[in-house]
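INTERNAL TRANSFER SHEET
From: sequence group
To: structure group
Subject: FAD/NAD(P)-binding domain-containing protein

Please process the attached sequence and return the structure record in the designated field. Keep the field labels unchanged so the import script can parse them.
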Amino acid sequence: MIVGAGFAGFQTARTLSRLAGRRVDVTLLNPTDYFLYLPLLPQVAAGVLEPRRVSVSLGDALPRVRLVLGEADDLDLESRVVRYTGPEGDRGELAYDRLVLSVGSVNKLLPVPGVAEHAHGFRGLPEALYLRDHVTRQIELAAASPDPETCRARCTFVVVGAGYTGVEVAAHGQLFTRSLVKRHPMRAGIQPRWMLLDIAPRVLPELDRRLSRTAERVLRERGVEVRTGTSVKEATHEGVLLDDGDTVDTRTLVWCVGVRPDPLVAGLGQPLERGRLLVDAFLNLPGHPEVYACGDAAAVPDLEKPGSYTAMTAQHAWRQGKVAGRNVAASLGIGRRGAYRHHDLGFTVDLGGVKGAANPLGIPLSGPLAGAVTRGYHLAAMPGNRVRVAADWLLDAVLPRQGVQLGLVRSWSVPLDTSSPELARVPGGPGDADRNGGTRAGSPDGSAGTAASDGGAKAAGADGGAKAAGADGGAKAAASDGGAKTAPSGGGTGKAARADRGSASKDGE
Ligand SMILES: Cc1cc2nc3c(=O)[nH]c(=O)nc-3n(C[C@H](O)[C@H](O)[C@H](O)COP(=O)(O)OP(=O)(O)OC[C@H]3O[C@@H](n4cnc5c(N)ncnc54)[C@H](O)[C@@H]3O)c2cc1C
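Return from structure group:
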């Protein structure tokens, strides 16, 4: 039984089903019927790729695996049962002999006033679709506005966090708005302004310095304002107050300050390392030889750097999934188990257009060569849809970007503070409030505030934002009294209910 079909879970399922064939029943529990190739999400937000290109069908890619659609919200390690909520609100229960937890991570929050209400994260497909529409809308509204101040504010886009996600969002976003403005010129000749902030002294602070330099140079050449050593002190509907005292009028705040492990694992009552489930080098949960964890949600000892844990990257998650699959098979008498060990192969950062920054095997690359290596790497790494992705790239190279907003994902349906970034909230959808007595409902959608940033109160009302805000009000309150704290069966009995991310933000993450 594998919970979560991202990089780690997908690869566990694939490896195990290949090794064990029909001797083992592999069940994969995931809220969506696709594997999401997250590294290409900035290209979805910028209109380079259509969303289904980065969504690889689990049914097609894993034909021998039984897919169950749903979100685990109650793990009972004692009776070896996973309880979940299906896509239509139905409850289900699955028993297991071996369990692999690979539920990934969610947006990280910081206790900054106004951010939960006015910022959006970038961890799932709904957020990327929202951002694409939102940015398009801001440019269209700005072009139609007679007021230069409003126009300027709508044309200002602030990205917080200059890790690979923030850098790619800003790099692609700037090219996207540049192409939109060609079709919607601003009255006073105002140009889109992109700002990238980070409290760290350099962009890509966790990567090689040469990658940082390349990325910063490309961003600055394009006109992105890179402000290192700077962060947001407060966010409001009208803009942000920076910690250096500057105020920036904007309707767009993209929150890319990092991720935290999915709160589900915190509820297990097992030892954690910064919210990640502590496992041994064989990816086993100590004291539970039948339970494994891997990917962002697991703290896996880094045998290449003794004393530390592997980073939260796709590179590790993918390979850990392989090891988890092998080790589960070994526990059933098929093959031999092995410890997880991986030497960093370098990193690639897609800067949009033909540019990139990369250091494959430690060799620093920049410009079009890095761009080509980055795209080639992604194509090779994707477990499907390669021809479709390449076709979209080709079309993007010869045709102008499509500047239309479908408006299907609205601000209130992609709250920053959520444990389910893979799903968009829908008004009257399968009952947040019905589930877990309000725990899941904690999906506080910050509706009122964020919907307003879509274009004011009118937009919020028109798309049901106001309604959703009202409907969620109670749920939010219910969650804030601590789904995370009450649901786990305390005392480490091994039973976990889905933790509420609201509480995490209060804990100061
Ligand atoms: C925009 C972006 C760009 C990135 N670019 C790179 C990059 O270039 N290189 C790199 O190495 N890393 C990159 N990363 C990081 C990388 O994507 C993650 O480290 C990786 O996805 C972790 O894999 P995972 O399997 O642990 O989690 P995920 O891939 O997130 O998968 C988790 C899965 O679990 C499911 N799930 C969650 N909760 C539940 C539940 N309760 N029940 C059932 N299923 C559940 C989710 O729906 C999802 O399918 C990027 C991340 C982002 C957001």
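Handover comment: The longest helix spans residues 125-144. The chain has a mean pLDDT of 86.
Transfer complete.
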